[in-house]
Amino acid sequence: MTTKERLIEAGLRMLEAEGPEALNARKLAAAIGASTMTVYTHFGGMAGLYDALIRRAFLQFGDALAEVKPSDDPVADVFVLGLTYREFALASPQRFRFMFGVTAPGSGAAVAQDLTNEGSPSGMPEMSATFDHLVEAVRRALEAGRIRGDDPVPIAGQFWSMIHGFVLLEMTGFFGTRGEGVPAVLAPLASNVLLGLGDDPAKLEKSAQKGYDWLASREQTPTIQPTMSVRRGRRPRRE
Question: Which domain range does residue 124 map to?
Fold first, then answer.
């Protein structure tokens, strides 16, 4: 393994163990037994290393999404892609925070561009490729007549907004710690969006059940450790 690769691997380990805010050149170099200058030699500084870590994380994310093979039910595929998105985030919440910039200022790289104008969420191909999985499932759902619309990109953006927002709230602890929010919040929300897009209720019910079956086939979701906590001040002293 090259020194550059060792730095990336050390960065990913440190990211998950201590969070994005813990990443710095001195600690990363020490983790592989090198000098701080090594980070600058191979990446030009921490900004270049942040970029490499984010690209690697999105490649890992893309590999996870690629495991959802297209089926004869594109709406079920949308459900399963969303659940895979959630599974990836909960498996490595610190990595997920870093990928999407939910970090302290300066500890991540900007990957976003205007999806509504550019047709893609990022100029970083590793990130855009992950969104393409959802766009393709939506395109197939449109072609099958399951939902209405002209452009799959903004529709995929609706589903992305839904699952991403849900995952962030769940990781923070707002929907319980053992997956309680999936049947209570996420599944009804997804169904409401699909019904609004014109899906047939009977077909939708069957597609949703396939999503539940996929979820049941996975290992039980571990207890979620909230990634952010609320600081509480001292209680006022009673007189």
Answer: 55-217
Backbone angles phi, psi at 137, to 5 degrees: -65, -40
Q: 217-223: long-range contacts at Cβ-Cβ below 8 A with a sequence spacing of 24 or more?
A: 218/87, 221/87, 221/90, 221/178, 221/179, 222/90, 223/177, 223/178
**Same structural domain, 95 and 184:** yes
pTM: 0.86
Question: Which CA distances in Å does 227 have to 82, 103, 159, 202?
Answer: 20, 11, 23, 38
At residue 229's C-alpha, the angle toward residues 96 and 170, to 5°, is: 50
Distance from C-alpha of 180 to C-alpha of 199, rounded to nearest angstrom: 26
Do 25 and 67 share a domain, yes or no? no
Axis-axis angle for helices 74-91, 152-172 (nearest 10):
40
- CATH of residue 23's domain is 1.10.10.60
Let me know whether 44 and 161 are in one domain: no
Tokens encoding 170: 């769940």
The b/e string for 175-184 (b: 16+ C-beta within 10 A; e otherwise) is beeebebbee
Together in a domain, 112 and 10: no
Plot region of 204 (φ>0 → left; ψ -120 to 50 → alpha; else → beta):
alpha
What are 186-215's pLDDT values in tens digits? 999 999 999 999 999 999 999 999 999 999
Contact 197, 148 (CB under 8 A): yes
Provide the domain count of the chain: 2
Q: Is residue 79 located within the same domain as residue 28?
A: no
**Rounded distance, CA 100 to CA 89, Å?**
11
